[in-house]
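User: Hello, beginner here. Can you help me understand these amino acid letters and fold codes? It all follows right here:
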Amino acid sequence: MVQKVDVLVLGAGIVGVSAALHLAKRGRNVVLVDRKEPGEETSHGNAGVIERDGFVPITFPDSLRKLIRYALNRSPEAHYHPSELRKAMPWLLQLRANSDSIAIDRFARAVDQLERHAVREHHALSREAQASRYFRSNGWLHLYRSAASFAETDLELHYARIFGAGYEVLEREALRDLEPHLMGAIHKAIHWQDTESVSSPGDVTKAYAGLFRRGGGRFVIGDATSLEANSGGWMVTTREGKFWADHAVVALGPWSPDVLKPLGYDFPLLVKRGYHIHYRPLGGAYLNRPVLDRDNGYVITPMERGVRLTTGIEFADRDAPPTPVQIARTKAYAEKLFPIDVEVDSEPWMGSRPCFADSLPIISRSPRHENLWLDFGHGHIGFTTGPISGRLLAEMMTGTPTIIDPAPYGARRFLQV
């Protein structure tokens, strides 16, 4: 027997859970579908930062020196599989086209729309979900090892001033007051004061999913790739039988193409893999907030399981076996920055970030199916923007005024779909 509901949401990461929750709050009968329990994939393994910064996207290397550094494949902030780099070349050329001043300004204004509401939307959900204990309101730190690397922040700080994002530039002495156990040669730091963080992003996602369930939503284990158009709506197969709905939302992050390509959509999405591992602090050392080493491309952040070290970008096939070489590379820097002891985890965790070359997500109706909705491609800011993306999508789907202008996140910006 086919069970009928209003909306199927495919994907139970922070983006899908938030969309399902906001739709349920607006009176829709929603079924959330995933192959795993909520918060088990990318939403589990990030640095747990809710950003109010990052107005300049990752861009194509702007000097021969940087190109050579990455080409040698020994840098701590990036690693690549040669076979994947060849496949990624069209995306990299798009990234280069999105690295000029016009594209950066377009990104900055679009990401500001999302980020200026991100903390508030997280707080609204966390209060209801009884998850406020995971949240820290003391910002995060970006560290710079030299005057040259700090000089590269000029554009970032320019946009921060335009958009009213709070920050303070710290000399070494002031930095020690905030984080007394940081070590090593640090030129300057930026304290991004309006950014928040959490001590377990996976548990926050699970708490939001629990709120969704308590509000009448339903989560089921199922195969999202079974989605098919059926009788003017959409049908999916799960362990609890078939579900049919008028509308479907694809919020599967890096797995979104698995569902969308059979439907005729070939969005230019690239998967960037990343790793994390937890360490026990040495002695009585502690961290108060996440710390980004900008020169070496890693974050250390206090988590429930210990100090989490998260790596930068790995260009590799999404489903290829893990190659966590960046853990070893970045640990060499991290242990000189903060006193870490033994590893808590038996092996590094690996996840995948779904990224478009313009560094913006799709949050929109699909181009050719009026009742198919898309909410994916959030790249490095998925945890930050999950709740605000979910609210925006729910407002569009229910025909109510939207909290922000959805135009920058439209699927039609990719002309080849």
Remarks:
- The two ends are 35 Å apart (CA to CA).
- The chain has a mean pLDDT of 96.
- Residues 38 and 380 are 19 Å apart (CA to CA).
- The longest helix spans residues 101-129.
